[in-house]
Specification:
26 strands, alpha+beta, seven-stranded antiparallel sheet
Length: about 675
């Protein structure tokens, strides 16, 4: 689409009762990001009340018409998805504006490939709009959905705001609550950074405000890191989450086991685990609307009354088929139906089973087939290849969920965002206990595959050649592992944790993985980068199969203000609780290496981090932790998967959580300007 153009959705697809709008961008540095927001407008072009403004602290509409589905990595960068159930939009809402905003003095001109795409209920993209010249704006309206003569249409807008989210929101009549949205995101007043002559803060001084709108954790008096919870809009209802500390037990001794709603002790076989896991999950989805809606909104399901069934027999030729489950959602007399196929432990999905369910769904007019397993799907590398009969008019969406994704969504609700009542909170708590039990079989990606040992041995004895297909298998397994690490850490923190694609983001997925496989053969290393919300840089992970060591590191840019000695002292002081064997390296301009040393050695003498005269200007610091990596391909204590997960969590918990973001002076605000 071109800027200003519009199109009727029903002219693009028959399945537009619910749609998913995705906003995407690419950061050349790997660190740039933005937050999406949606504004519902009445006939006067203004919000009906403040609850019509949806953003990261108010992500879901009570009627299910709007749901911010969060970020997902793509081969081109990041993608922020929003689910719209057009059948649930109130009659007095005429327009729904889709926008994104950046923080502090960040501008959209620093990002590339600003695009908005719209997919129908079966996941097929039906339109795309690219914004060419964002330049100095810090908020952009990408597009809007609006009604005309009973039809929903989409308009490509591309309108920019130099004064950020605040300017955009107030234009539409939103009464901004000072506590609801951080001032850094709104573009409001903030504390000026200290000048070069300002005295250095003493130990225990307050942390510098976080430019991402998420306060950086700081040690309390007893040394434990704390994080202030994000404030909610004043219009939001109080939600219920898990208590921070478990209540005192009434058991006489530790051998007494608490009674659980979903017991796992009787599970003896894989079939038992699959049947129990399916029934447990589907029952909680039906009873906790927030949870069920979250798992199905991205699949095109409308917001409505949900019912779930297990072990349903459906005719298919001479032999009836029994999918593990069925999900049905009713909205305004219409039914949305998905068949569910489940696998637990290391069992792989069977192509013939999934193909049969796709055929059944197409014949019976069902909308989707959902597969659930411990594997993680990768873009451009489907877990199951199925054939689609092009002669059939009815389309069926095939979607995959990892058990790790299910666990993350439950964690986000029960531990961070909250649910509507205590019964729902208890059900989610029981579900989490079941999924995380060692006997449930729902533990996510757990095996690097049969190629792991031959590739590792080939690197050791230098016999692994470029083009070996086994190296490509290991690279795909590595990508799945990193994706799962992000899911697990993000669920526990309640923050965005995403893999960074880097400079190869625009390549075809298979081509990019082939290049990474060649690098593995030549260098013997697997590499990845993770972006964790609230940290000052990208967390890099390098698994060196030649030396058997894992390196986790983060580059911290030098502040724009102050003296180098103050930077070094502040860095060492902020790492008071970090491991003594933490490596710190000074990054300097040019190719020369800067000073380096362990934290234990640098604590009494932070000045040792400063280059000698003529050594170049300091551009930042690199902090690194090294540990031995597991050799086994599985998830046992000595396995590679466990060692990578432990390394990332250790680095975040002991190093990254204590680091402050550098501050920068704000650019002066400018009035709204058009983009394009």
């Amino acid at each position: 689409m071109m800027k200003g153009s519009n199109v009727t959705l029903s002219a693009l697809s028959e399945n537009v009762g619910s749609v998913v709008v995705s906003l995407g961008w690419v950061s050349p540095t790997g660190e740039g990001d933005a937050d999406v927001s949606v504004v519902l407008l009445g006939s006067g072009g203004k919000v009906r009340d403040d609850s019509d403004f949806y953003f990261y602290n108010n992500p879901v509409a009570a009627d299910g018409s709007v749901q911010l589905l969060g970020k997902a990595p793509t081969e081109a960068g990041d993608e922020d998805r929003i689910g719209f159930d057009l059948t649930a939009v109130p009659e007095d809402v005429d327009r729904m504006v889709v926008a994104a905003s950046r923080y502090r003095d960040a501008r959209f001109g620093e990002l590339e490939n600003l695009t908005v795409t719209l997919a129908d209920a079966v996941g097929d993209p039906v339109l795309r709009f690219t914004i060419e010249d964002a330049d100095t704006v810090s908020a952009v309206i990408f597009g809007e959905l609006y009604r005309r003569s009973g039809e929903w249409k989409f308009r490509a807008v591309g309108q920019g705001y130099a004064d950020g989210l605040a300017g955009l929101a107030t234009d539409f009549g939103v009464d901004i609550d000072d506590d609801a949205v951080p001032q850094e995101a709104l573009g409001g007043p903030e504390e000026e950074p200290a000048g070069p002559d300002a005295p250095e803060p003493a130990d225990g001084d307050a942390a510098v405000p976080n430019p991402d709108g998420v306060p950086a954790p700081r040690p309390t008096a007893d040394g434990a890191p704390t994080r202030r919870p994000a404030a909610r809009p004043r219009t939001a209802k109080k939600k219920i989450t898990l208590p921070k500390a478990a209540g005192k037990s009434l058991a006489e001794n530790d051998s007494w086991r608490e009674a659980r709603l979903f017991p796992v002790t009787a599970l003896k076989s894989d079939r038992d685990r699959e049947t129990r896991a399916t029934s447990v999950l589907l029952s909680v989805m039906a009873q906790v609307p927030e949870f069920g809606r979250r798992l199905t909104a991205g699949f095109g399901a409308p917001a409505g009354r949900m019912e779930t069934y297990a072990e349903v027999s459906l005719p298919h030729g001479d032999t009836p088929r029994r999918p593990d489950g069925v999900v049905r959602v009713e909205r305004a007399g219409k039914l949305w139906t998905a068949l569910v196929e489940t696998k637990t432990n290391g069992n792989a999905l069977k192509a013939d089973q999934v193909q049969a369910y796709m055929d059944i769904a197409a014949r019976r007019g069902y909308e989707a087939v959902i597969t659930l397993s411990n594997d993680v799907a990768l873009e451009g590398s489907p877990l199951v290849d199925v054939k689609v009969d092009g002669r059939r008019k009815h389309k069926v969406a095939l979607r995959h969920l990892s058990w790790a994704e299910v666990t993350q969504q439950a964690q986000m609700l029960i531990r961070h965002e909250g649910v509507g009542n205590r019964a729902h909170a208890w059900l989610l708590e029981e579900l989490l206990h079941y999924l995380q039990h060692e006997n449930s079989g729902c533990h996510g990606f757990q095996n690097m595959g049969p190629a792991w040992v031959p590739v590792r041995n080939g690197i050791d004895d230098e016999t692994l050649c470029q083009g070996d297909p086994r190296a490509l298998d290991v690279v795909e397994s590595w990508e799945r592992l990193i994706r799962q690490v992000c899911l697990g850490l993000g669920g526990e923190l309640g923050q965005k944790v995403l893999p960074v694609r880097g400079s190869r983001g625009g390549r075809d997925p298979r081509e990019r993985r082939s290049l990474l496989a060649d690098q593995l053969c030549l260098q013997g290393r697997l590499q990845a980068e993770l972006r964790i919300e609230g940290t000052p840089g990208v967390l890099a992970v390098v698994a060196d199969l030649r030396t058997g060591r894992l390196r986790t590191s983060m580059d911290i840019p030098a502040p724009d203000q102050g003296y180098p000695l103050s930077w070094a002292k502040r860095l060492v002081r902020s790492l008071a609780e970090a491991p003594a064997d933490l490596h710190i390296e000074t990054l300097v301009e040019g190719d020369s290496a800067g000073p380096r040393g362990t934290l234990e050695r640098l604590r009494p003498e932070p000045a040792d981090l400063l280059p000698k005269a003529g050594g170049g200007a300091i551009t930042g610091f690199r902090v690194s932790l090294l540990k031995g990596m597991g050799s086994g391909r599985g998830n046992a204590e000595t396995g590679f998967i466990r060692s990578v997960d432990d390394a990332v969590r250790r680095f975040y918990g002991s190093v990254a959580v204590n680091l402050d973001r550098p501050t920068a002076r704000r650019a002066p605000a400018r009035p709204p300007v058009p983009v394009g």
